Every structure is written in C-alpha cells, then in structure tokens.
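To illustrate the input format used throughout this study, we show a single complete record. The first block contains the structure-token representation of the backbone; no residue identities are included at this stage. The design step must infer an amino acid for every position from geometry alone.
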C-alpha cells in the first residue's frame, strides 16, 4: 500500500476521504458509508484519495484499497504530548499539528475533505485550510448523543473548523435546525442520502429474529450490565413461553468484549449472527434493538423493528425521532407479528417513518456539491 509520504507533492484531488478502520463493516473490508460516494467518483471521473485511520482495538480488518494513516497517526499522538496545551485551546493545537504535518504527509492538494465521526477534523482543517470540509453522518443524532450540537448549541468543533455536514435525510436536518443558532445547519447541512435502498425481503414473520445489542465501550459498565440483563430476561421469557424462534445476536462494532456475554449462548435458540447485515436480514424477518441505525437498515430490507426499551435514557428513537412503536412488552409484540396483516401494517408504518431520516443516496446531489 502506498504511503501519504510518497504521493507527489502538489497533486490535486477532488476529494480526500478520511475514516477510522472500525467502519470497514462490509465484505472485502470496505466502508459501506463511503462505498456509494466512491462509486459516484469513479462514474463521474472525480479524483479521490481514501485514507484509513488505524484502530488497534477493532475486530474489523484493514481496507486494502485505502492508504494507511498509521505513521502519521502516531506522529499526531507524539505531537499532542510535545506541544503544550493551553487552557481550552485543544482545537487550535490540533490545527497547528495539521499545518505542521502538511509539510511531510498532506502534500497533495484537496478541493474537498470528507470525514466520518469528525475524526481528526481539526487536524485536517490545519492541513487543508482552503478545502471544503464535510462530515458524513454515520449514526443517530440525539440530545443524549452529542456530535453536531451540545447543550442546544451548534458544536464548537463544527463552527471552529467551518465544517459542513452531509446528512442522510431531511428529517435529520429539520431536527438540527431546532437547536439555538440552527440557521448554521440550514446553510451548512446538505441532504445527500444514506447508504441504503428500500426492498422487501420478507412478507411475513418466519420466527427468525435479529437482536443487535448495544453493549459497547461507549457505555458505562452499569449501563452495559442493564442491557445484558434485559436480553437475558427476554431469553427467559422466550424459553418460558416455548416460542419456536431463533434469536441471532449481533454485537456492536465497539463491543470489544467489554463485558462477558457468554451466558446468552447457553440458550439453545440463541445463535451468533452472520457478519454481514445483508446476510442477517436474508435470514431474519424481525429485528430487536435498544437503539441503533440498524433500525433503518432493517426497514430498508423490509424487516420491522421492536425497540427493547431496557434503559429509559436510550429511548430517543421514540422520544425524539417519533418511532411508531407498539406499546406492549417485547414478548407480546413477537407473538403479534405472527399475524401477517399486523406484520405488513407495521412494516408499512415503519417504512414511511424511516424514509424521512434515511433517503436513498442522491448521486447527482453529491457530485454537484463536490464540483461546486
């Protein structure tokens, strides 16, 4: 794989894509969030670089088509230790580091830079001060999971870096516009759609359920224990009711064995889910989760979702996104999905809801934005 250091100085690229390794979630270790954008670049003759930030804790593999950022990443860690941090001056220091490294590693020119999860955003702004800097939405936005706003204010990182947003749907943009000074999002947020299309793989419940549990390093140990206890309680209810179902468990990308879940696999009806979500939804016709973007991915394959609601603070899909839930316990909802008319009715309601927040990828909008 080529290194950033060896790229010809001054070469111009329409787009530099930058992302952390743990987003390589598709077969072939590709990043599903960037895949359609890269296809659009290839189709419309836009030049691009794909740069991958290492993650030495993830189980997801490296992308052989991406330029590794490892050495530069280590240099950033060293410089963070070396350059003194003045009070409340983290973003300025990041930008200074980016400017410094631009003489050695970011020697190519970029018209646009696109990140995911705002990774190294201030570093990249320092390296490319004249570029259009975008962050592509990758997860759920809510009052409890701050990324683009905090305390009802536009994120300082966004305004400091003059960063723009690429969003999945108009519903997300409308949510962001409600925060104080939301006019920033009115101008700087662009709806280009998500990495989803819509199709129906199932017309009825086949007793195969995918459960995407949200146990991860992003939560406290107490929260993870409550999530595990909720799934164990559900397993006990399935066993007690003698439901003829199979429960496929899919771990969160940042699970990293942060808590022992082996007890779940002691139930005869519990299995480990296939690595690919597409495979999961080919098998399973019903989805259960506490909260997850997998809600939208499930619906895009024609698979309705039940929200587990084990922890009230995580119930923002109902409270903020207004997810069309059924006000019944999980086990009762599973039984109701055996009714074909109920299954189709819920799927239709959830699909209409989801399309506000996850529109199909709009290639024309994306290409026009990159060519501006």
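Output of the design step:
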């Amino acid at each position: 794989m080529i290194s950033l250091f060896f790229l010809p100085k001054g070469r111009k690229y329409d787009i530099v894509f930058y992302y952390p390794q743990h987003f390589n979630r598709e077969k072939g270790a590709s990043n599903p969030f960037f895949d359609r954008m890269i296809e659009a670049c290839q189709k419309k003759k836009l030049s691009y670089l794909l740069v991958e930030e290492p993650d030495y804790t993830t189980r997801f593999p490296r992308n052989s088509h991406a330029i590794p950022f490892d050495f530069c990443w280590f240099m950033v860690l060293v410089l963070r230790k070396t350059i003194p941090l003045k009070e409340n001056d983290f973003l300025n220091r990041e930008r200074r580091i980016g400017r410094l490294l631009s003489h050695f590693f970011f020697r190519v020119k970029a018209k646009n830079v696109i990140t995911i999860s705002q990774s190294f955003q201030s570093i990249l702004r320092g390296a490319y001060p004249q570029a259009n800097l975008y962050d592509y939405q990758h997860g759920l936005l809510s009052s409890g999971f701050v990324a683009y706003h905090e305390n009802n204010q536009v994120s300082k990182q966004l305004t400091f870096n003059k960063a723009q947003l690429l969003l999945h749907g108009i519903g997300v943009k409308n949510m962001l516009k409600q925060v104080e000074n939301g006019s920033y999002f009115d101008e700087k947020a662009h709806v280009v759609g998500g990495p989803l299309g819509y199709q129906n793989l199932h017309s009825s419940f086949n007793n195969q359920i995918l459960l995407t549990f949200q146990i991860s390093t992003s939560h406290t140990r107490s929260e993870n224990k409550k999530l595990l206890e909720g799934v164990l309680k559900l397993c006990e209810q399935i066993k007690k009711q003698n439901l003829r179902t199979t429960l496929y468990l899919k771990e969160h990308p940042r699970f990293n064995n942060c808590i022992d879940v082996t007890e779940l696999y002691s139930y005869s009806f519990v299995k480990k889910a296939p690595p690919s979500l597409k495979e999961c939804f080919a098998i399973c016709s019903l989805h259960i989760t506490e909260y997850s973007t997998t809600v939208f991915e499930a619906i895009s394959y024609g698979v309705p979702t039940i929200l587990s609601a084990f922890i009230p603070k995580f119930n923002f899909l109902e409270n903020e996104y207004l997810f069309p839930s059924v006000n019944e316990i999980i086990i009762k909802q599973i039984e109701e999905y055996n009714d074909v008319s109920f299954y189709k009715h819920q799927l239709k309601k959830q699909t209409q809801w989801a399309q506000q927040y996850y529109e199909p990828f709009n290639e024309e909008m994306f290409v026009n934005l990159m060519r501006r």
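Structural context for interpreting the output: The chain has a mean pLDDT of 89. The radius of gyration is 22 Å.
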